[in-house]
Input
Amino acid sequence: MAKPPTLIVHINGRATTVDAGSVVSAAILAAGVPCRLSISGAPRSALCGMGICFECRAVVDGIPHCRTCQLVCRDGMTVGTQR
Output
């Protein structure tokens, strides 16, 4: 089976290589950072993986509160974890 093509997503300014077809929450996890921090400062990441829990919210291409488990990565996408 051929390896899927890869693309580059910028997470908190750091270039991260992901397989084409990956969702953004998976790219964030691969980068080793949380999607956001709670009000108390606790790291939060995708919990349900189907857009219901809203724990995977991040800033994607300048748009805050995007549910990253519902977004497929595209080359050059910029993602910022929320504070």
Remarks:
- The chain is about 10% helix and 35% strand.
- Residues 26 and 77 are 14 Å apart (CA to CA).
- The chain has a mean pLDDT of 93.
